[in-house]
């Protein structure tokens, strides 16, 4: 016995949401800004009272941490993209329902998946449907069932 995987929530039209791989905020400094500040500090320090080695090493370690955190964020974004692609590919041959912009529900079988710039698109009856619009996914009908 197969059953559909239905959406959760109200009966109103769902809002498509996509995950972003990066966040750019004007109020946060990146590694380039941190490095510029460190170089400026070294350039304008008092030669008679230089920055201690311990403080310099601490700042260098902080810079390394910032770089590694950016690498981790980049790897997480790549993993998320791969996971979304694999999930989308698994939909081929499944019956799906989705909500169109006018609020009506359409159904069909996913014949292929197209990978665009933002989000994978399920191709149903020649129409490209963003995965965020899907409201129901069910196993394909078995012959003789």
Automatic annotation (TrEMBL):
Compositional bias of kind Polar residues: 10-23
Stretches the record annotates as Disordered: 1-24
Domain of life: Bacteria
Key word DNA repair present: no
GO biological process, one term: bacterial-type flagellum organization
Keywords: Bacterial flagellum biogenesis, Cell projection, Cilium, Flagellum
KW Kinase (keyword) present: no
InterPro entries, sorted: FlgD
Family according to the record: Belongs to the FlgD family.
Name of the molecule in the record: Flagellar basal-body rod modification protein FlgD
């Amino acid at each position: 016995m197969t059953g559909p995987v239905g959406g959760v929530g109200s009966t109103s039209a769902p809002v498509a949401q996509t995950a972003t791989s990066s966040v750019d905020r004007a109020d946060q400094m990146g590694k380039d800004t941190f490095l510029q500040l460190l170089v400026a500090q070294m350039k304008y320090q008092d030669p008679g009272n230089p920055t201690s080695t311990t403080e310099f090493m601490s700042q260098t370690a902080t810079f390394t941490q910032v770089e590694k955190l950016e690498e981790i964020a980049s790897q997480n974004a790549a993993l998320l993209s791969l996971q979304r692609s694999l999930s989308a590919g698994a939909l081929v041959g499944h019956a799906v329902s989705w909500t169109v912009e006018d609020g009506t529900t359409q159904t069909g079988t996913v014949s292929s998946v197209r990978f665009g710039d933002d989000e994978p698109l399920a191709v149903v009856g020649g129409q490209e449907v963003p995965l965020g619009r899907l409201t129901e996914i069910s196993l394909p009908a078995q012959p003789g069932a």
